[in-house]
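Protocol step 4 of 6.
Sequence for Wall-associated receptor kinase galacturonan-binding domain-containing protein (Zizania palustris) entered exactly as in the expression construct, tag removed. Do not edit the line below.
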Amino acid sequence: MPLLLLCRRLLLLLLLVAASHGYAAGDTNGYDSSMCLKEPMACGNVSISYPFYLSSEIKDLNGYSSSYCGYPGLAIECNDGKTMMQLDGPYKYLVKNISYGSYGNDSYGNVSLADPVVLEDRSSCPKVDHNVTIPWFSWLYFPGMSVDYLVFFLDCSFPAPIVRPPATYQLTCGNIGAGQSFVLPKDKVPEYNIYYGSLSQACNKIIEVPVLSDNSGDSEWSSDEYGQVLRQGFQLAWNESKRSANCAQCEQSNGRCGYNQEGNFIGCLCPDGREHSRNCSGSGKPFVSSTTLLLCKGGHR
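Step 5 output, structure tokens:
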């Protein structure tokens, strides 16, 4: 049999064996296993597990710098026993608790957060100076069943025909500007009216913050003690529906999903210290000896 034909058949056989073991183009020999949490990991009184990851353990993977072992947006900082998570912008939030669950092959859960500035300010009306938002690439979202919103209208004046909100919503404490200020549950904010304008037109700053859903109704705190509500924090959940088919296949084979900073799946990180393109069914790349390569190279002459 001609050498060239023999080489082609040998290489084809190796590719078939690779495919049967879950190998694919792009497999690598290994990865830095410190990327993945040795779960469960405790930071203070919070237990941290995959799909969360430590922001201090981002690595290079498949040529992508700052890659990680976990889901986009689920980075955790652990400093001096304090568990922190950064959302959109420069703001970091204290992680009060993480709950985990599973249904079939899918995992789910939520994370409870609170603004550390609010927690440290023990006054009845702590300063509220920024919106709480989630980065666009993150898999986190506000679960509708457990989160409502408070809207702060700060430093307002009411030229006609804009209508002033009821006095029960007015803030009477805290350093909140020269004008009048109000806090309303989001579902109580009046809609824009062509004849009476909008409440937002009357105020210099508007801030929307999430709270637990059973704390957003009308009560006495809306005028002078909203701090106790904000200190209870809010919840976020992670969205399994964003998981790619490759990531799902990886996790079903006992691997963990590697992502780059753009939130793209780039590899399956396996318990044996190897990284594959899709799953952990195999134990390494197919081996082609240097002798075979030399013979095949010679067969092309």
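Step 6, annotate. The radius of gyration is 27 Å.
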